């Protein structure tokens, strides 16, 4: 029994179909001159995942996005497979005033073109502090490959969302007020 079998038992997805779709997405990344790597299901991460590098942010920090398919039961997702876009951002959040941070996230979520800004809990086992992240889920027909044009447009808007969040949070970390940090992204 594979690591993903338990998660996929009540779904229309199979580990084989997920791996095939993720390999196709890795090709789409290659077409954009970005690197993507498919990671098979394993004990630590029981679902196959695609990890890809985005362009570094404006402070030259590396950025990574991961993709996985949500293992929704057949009753919930009979005709659709749901692809998750997820990126933890390189800007620190632990030193920010909590109320200011939460207000910033709320305001950002009203401005992002795609996705939602969330706080990822710290992971002491891996020495990781709390981080801001952007998450988005897109539905695609269960049968057939993920459409390259739709995926590429979604990735462009997801990347823009990540940039907006990073710009605001970096501004707060640099000592700007909330209004000053938001002025950096316009609108």
Word description of this protein:
By secondary structure, the protein is α+β, with helices and mostly antiparallel strands. It has one domain (5-183): Yope Regulator, Chain: A. 35% of the residues lie in helices and 25% in strands. The chain has five helices and six strands; from the N terminus they run H-H-E-E-E-E-H-E-E-H-H. It has a six-stranded antiparallel beta sheet. A hairpin with an 8-residue loop joins strand 2 (49-54) and strand 3. The longest helix has 26 residues, at 148-173. The protein is globular and about 50 Å long. It starts with a helix and ends with a helix.
Q: How large is the share of residues in beta strands?
A: 15-25%
Number of helices, counting only DSSP H or I runs of 4 residues or more: 5
Tell me the count of domains.
Answer: 1
pLDDT under 50 segments (min length 5)?
Answer: none
Please tell me the overall pLDDT. Answer: 91
Number of strands: 6
**Oligomerization category of the chains in this entry:** single chain
Structural class: alpha+beta
Strand order of the largest sheet: 1-2-3-4-6-5
Termini separation comes to 52 Å
Radius of gyration: 18 Å
**CATH A-level architecture:** 2-Layer Sandwich
Main beta sheet strand tally, sense and closure: 6 strands, antiparallel
Helicity, as a percent range = 25-40%
Dominant shape: globular
Element pattern in H and E: HHEEEEHEEHH
